[in-house]
Structures are given as C-alpha cells and as structure tokens.
Amino acid sequence: MFNLPRRTLLGAALAMPMVARAQGAWAPTRPVRLVLPFAPGGLTDILARAAADQLSARWGQPVVVENRAGAGGNLAAETVARATPDGHTLLVATQGIIAINKVLFERLSYDPDADFIPLAMLAQQPNLLVVSPRALPDVTDVASLVAKLRATPDGMPYGSNGVGSFTHLSMELLRATLNVPMTHVPYRGSAPLLTDMVAGTIPVALDGLATSKPQVSAGGALRAIGVTSARRFRAMPDVPAIAETVPGFDASPWYGVFGHAGTPEPIQAGLEAAFRAVLESPAWAAVLAQREADAMPQGRAGLATLMQRERQTWREAVRRSGARAE
C-alpha cells in the first residue's frame, strides 16, 4: 500500500468538486436553489431533496431546497422568473405552473411559456380512478364505468380535491374524451372527498396515489379501476391503465426541473448533464422504487416537445371545465 502525504490527499479532496469544470462542463460557483411550489413532506419535496443531495456531492456546492407554497405555485414561479439567469436558481414544477396556470388565473406576473426552459424530468406518478363500492357495486373496471356513465343522462357526480385542481381537470379530460355528461363536486382536499366516497355519497373520482391507495388497500373501502398513466403502473400492476379502455388517455402528474429562459446554453447543457447523472444512478432508482414513482428519461429536446403537448392538452381542459382560480 502507498502512503501518500497528508497534503497530497487534502489537495486531491479539494480538487474533486472541480473535476466537472476541468473537463469542460459547467458547475455552480455558489449555492444552488431548487425552488418548489409545495410545502415540505410531499412527493415533490422528497424528490427534490434526494436530487439536491446528489447534486451537492457532485458539484461540491450546497443545493438548497426552498419551499415557496401558495397562489397555485405562482410564488415559486415568480421567484425563478425574476432570478438571475445563471443556473443557480431552478424551479421544480408540475403541469400546474407550466401548462395550466396561464388560463386558470386571470393574470400572472410571469409568462410560463416564455420564462422557463425544461432541464430534466424527475419522475411521474399516476393518479387512481377510484369508485365507491357502496355507490357503484357493479362497477369493477373502466368499461363498466363507461357503460354506467352512458346510462346516466343527467350526469353522474364525480369528486375532486378542488376547482381547477389536476384531478378535476383530468376527470374533465376523461369526460370530454368519452363525450358523456358528468357533474363536478369539488372538495377542499382529498380527505373529505374520500370520506364521502367511502360512505357512498360520491360514486367516482380521480385522486392521488398517496391518499387513495390506503383506502383501496383497507379492506376495499374504495375500488381502484384504473391508473391515469399511458401504461400500467409498476407499483400496482393489477390495476389497468385507463388507456386500455380509452385509447390515448394519459393524465399523470409529472415533476420536472426548469431554468430561467435566459440561461446561457453552456449552463443549460451542464445542468442537463448533472441531472442526467443523478437520474441514471442506482440511488435514484431506489428513491423512485421506495416512493412508488416512475422515471421519465428525456433530454431537453424531448421535454420541450412534451411541454408543447401538455400546454395544449391542459389549457383546453381548463377552457372546457370553465374553471377559474378561486
């Protein structure tokens, strides 16, 4: 074994964060902020913190997760839109900020189409289409739900966790695709919605995996008949994708990283490469498996195309629903 001088070892350790820069890739020169539109503790926060830990080790700079919840994500978006476009302030966002808010809110202080560029997609996690066995005892799959909807000319009621929420707009997308009448019953969050579903007051809803799956597992208080992803979800392989019955349906929440649109190309490329290294790591695969989320491996070009499609899909859903921010 070679015994290297302590000074040599110290110098090598200090040089490690500079490796990427020495190889020509951009790296931050001060702490990086990951700005989130949600409170701590949810999936977005967990994913952001897991990514921050890896990025910090890679860059040799602190990566700080900053939770700026409120105003439908607009506070977080404004923070990044007003930041210096140097790669040190990034936005972690969902469809809400990027695709929906522009038509949901009467006015915004930022332009989601012009102010941000996509850098990476952290993950996606589908919502569940759940029915109340008390209200719909004979509905066991999407096909039988569709038959029931077509046989209800006055419009079957469906619940959501709020006007303009992603679950509301996703159900509106499904309703429009099927061309059936339905009546929206908004709730203030998932908890009261699911309570009424278990009681049989509300027959059907789309809801988040974290909140609805326990009700499905708890003795069948609710019945999961579909997932909103284009394909079956690996964490619930026995639950079909809605798209198996309704071709083309795809309405899964995703969690992406965006930068200021004025960020120079070399910095964009460096950020993309850094996030790609994180997302391709075994540690990241373990995070997704533990949190029951799926990877969405796409480069910047693919993400830009996806954003265009998402804007068209969800803005049309908002217009059809007539939803406005409360």
From TrEMBL:
The source's domain of life comes to Bacteria
Q: Does the keyword Membrane apply?
A: no
Q: Where is the signal peptide?
A: 1-22
Give the Pfam families listed for this entry.
TctC
Instruction: Cite the entry's keywords alphabetically.
Output: Signal
Q: Which InterPro entries does its entry note?
A: BUG, Bug_dom1
Q: Which residues cross the membrane?
A: none
UniProt cross-references to PANTHER family, sorted A to Z: BLR1237 PROTEIN (PTHR42928:SF5), TRICARBOXYLATE-BINDING PROTEIN (PTHR42928)
Q: Which family does it belong to?
A: Belongs to the UPF0065 (bug) family.
User: What is the protein name for this chain?
Assistant: Tripartite tricarboxylate transporter substrate binding protein
Q: What species is given as this protein's source?
A: Falsiroseomonas algicola
